[in-house]
Hints:
Blueprint: E1 2-7, H1 12-23, E2 30-33, H2 45-57, E3 63-68, H3 72-78, E4 86-88, H4 92-100, E5 106-110, H5 116-127, H6 137-150
Parallel strand pairs: 1-2, 1-3, 3-5, 4-5
Helix pairs in contact: 1-5, 2-3, 4-5
Bound molecules: the ligand O=C(CO)[C@H](O)COP(=O)(O)O.
Residues 8, 10, 45, 68-70, 72-73 line the site of the ligand O=C(CO)[C@H](O)COP(=O)(O)O.
Amino acid sequence: MTVAVAADNAGVELKKLLAEQLEGDSRVGEVLDYGVHDDSDDRAYPRLGLAAAEAVARGEADRAVLVCGTGIGMCVSANKVEGVRATVAHDSYSAERSIKSNDCQVLTMGARVIGPELARRLVDEWLGYSFDPSSASAAKVAYITDYEHQS
Length: 151
Ligand SMILES: O=C(CO)[C@H](O)COP(=O)(O)O
């Protein structure tokens, strides 16, 4: 699996930790880092999050982990990219259901909300989940995709 990561300067330290973890995880073949690389880079979160989400939409990344102060801005941004489903999740159940119910490819977190150890644990769990296209949830997700294609 290829995983994209991105953060603004509020999330860069947590993003670095998570990227290191992903690079050491045998389930991850490649980590694509869309920045920022240090907190002197004050580019706004949509610029970073949209770049990573577009990589998911193009099929260059299977999933993405995006970090800002709250996770909310990254989530709103990523959800603007056609075909991308993103969620903020700071708890285990939401991280699980974001895959199993919603087939979200993008997990966002807020570095000002969650501690690094819980964030690392959630990413580890999240990597282990997959969406079952034959599940009852699939038709619900398809409804969202159909809506997106109407416009
Ligand atoms: O959390 C953020 C966006 O959701 C970002 O890190 C900070 O945004 P700001 O509060 O608008 O500066």
